[in-house]
Amino acid sequence: MALTKVKAGNILLTTPSASSNDVTPATTQYVTTALANMVDSAPSTLNTLNELAAALGDDASFSTTVTNSIATKLPLAGGTMTGALNMGTQNITNAGTIASSAITSSGVVSAEDDIYLTDAGTVRGKLLLNASDRDNVELRAESLGSTMKFFTVGTQALLLDASQNATFTSDVNIAGTTKVDGGNGYFRDGVGNSFSTGWDSTSDDHSTWINFEGYQGGTTKFRDLRIGNGKQIAFVHFDGSASTSNFAGNIYLTGSNDRRIKLSDSGIGGVSDSNNTVNIRGDNDNVKINSAANGIIIMEINGTEAARVGPNGIGFSNDSSANKSLNAYEEGNATLAIATSDVQYTTTGQTDTSRYIRIGNQVTIWASIAITSPSNGTGTLRVTGLPYANGSGGPEAVTGVCKLGRMANAATQRPYGILPNGSDVITFYYNRDGNTQAGFSANNLNGQITPYIEFTLTYEV
Fold first, then answer.
1. Domain span at residue 120?
2. The pTM is what?
3. 32 HSE (CA, 13 A, CB side)
4. Has residue 436 been placed in a domain?
5. pLDDT tens track for 290-332
6. What digits encode the pLDDT tens for the residues 4-34?
7. DSSP H/E element including 49
8. What are phi and psi of 114, to 5 degrees?
């Protein structure tokens, strides 16, 4: 059969579908479409095989290279790091438990809640926020019987034991207030001497105690407690062995009036402000030394009694009997007056400069009295107004030097005064015949200008 030559322009082919997979001739349209589908939306720099090869580094083993590279990465499921993890300025957030033998950071390490310190899975210590008050931070030793130690430059500075006792290995400087609540406070040295403060809560008094005790040969000894100025000079020295207190300076009790120092439990024990206690007290500008109701105040010189003050007054030489006690001292103006035993004088006035002094039971009077222009007086001459009566158990008292002036018969009769037992009125007499006394007449002053009387008299009350 002869071949017929056909021109290309006279051949019309049908373009197969994109999914065609048979012997149908491919048209230029089919080929162009297939190439376009293969390139799709690839960028212009990756739409040729050469560009793709260049992008893969012209690596014929690209798959192996990628697989080996992925094998060096940390899986999401976790794994073991073979080198350091450098986060740069980034944070690790939402982390659970971080377990490590050491964590080093040159910046801030932040934990949302607790930091545990473990040993073989057992929690030994915790740093955490308080569960009820998130503003409080707690540092805990969790093991039974464990202690907490605080070090500075490798040297232990503080030890907290399981009984909550704190031991400092050096000085403790406190800038603020020191409080001990719920127990006693102790300060101990290295050999067992201790200074403690506390209180006795077994009674309603709730007394506060300050104690200092030590050890000598294994036996507890009460030692001295001294308060000084930092140069081994004790202002206050409490001697534990002798139970005495020594003060190097003044003792001041300040406040309102009636400040007291209680000296013993005599009288009403424990009540220092009662008058029935032994005390020394200041009352406004006065100083008072007080004994209990059944006591006396004794003054000694070198251990020997020199004087005492008791219910009978002041006694001397260890003698407390009433007749040897000085129970009063008094002095002042006597305020005496010239009088009679019958009708009193008519006068324009009297002057009196008399003085008296009382020491114990003895009274001495220095009398100086004058009356102006007396008249109409009758009876016996008298002086009234003595500060005390003559004692009821003693003898009558007679004036000593007695001077009566500007009155009749005074020079010849030489009158004298007698103070009877139990009386406070002096009556004047004279010796009529050497043996018989008679009253000195009040008429001897009538009509005189200014009669006067001067005498001394000592008697017992």
1. 115-168
2. 0.43
3. 4
4. yes
5. 777 777 777 777 778 777 777 777 776 655 555 556 677 899 9
6. 665 666 667 777 776 777 767 777 777 777 7
7. helix 49-55
8. -105, 150
